[in-house]
Amino acid sequence: MRQDSQLILRSVYACAIRTLIDKMLSTNGGKVRIYMRAIADYITNEPNLLSFSKGDIIQIINRNDGTLPMEQNSEQWLYGRIGNHFGNLPANYVEPLNSFGQVTIIASFFFLLLR
């Protein structure tokens, strides 16, 4: 499936599936997970920096000052992970991922999964 595509599925369990997907994508022990999408490649050999390719989905853990990102500028660095790889990354190489994993109930037996 292409990135930024929509998938419409039919299921009598649409509401239960939505609840499960929302729970898995948005919480971790009561903490909100923040995901961002890479808008450009960032390749580095530095061990404390995270390399990624355009389109990669990155979970943001926190900023260097321990707070979660709110507003970005070109001088901000974030701390994130892709799989088991962790590291700092420049904030201007990523954008908020508002629609990834969002599920919309179209009818009681249809749901729409945006990726």
From TrEMBL:
Pfam families membership: SH3_2 (PF07653)
SMART domains: SH3
Protein name: SH3 domain-containing protein
Keywords per UniProt: SH3 domain
Superkingdom as given in the UniProt entry: Eukaryota
SUPFAM superfamilies (UniProt xref): SH3-domain
Domain SH3 residue range list: 31-99
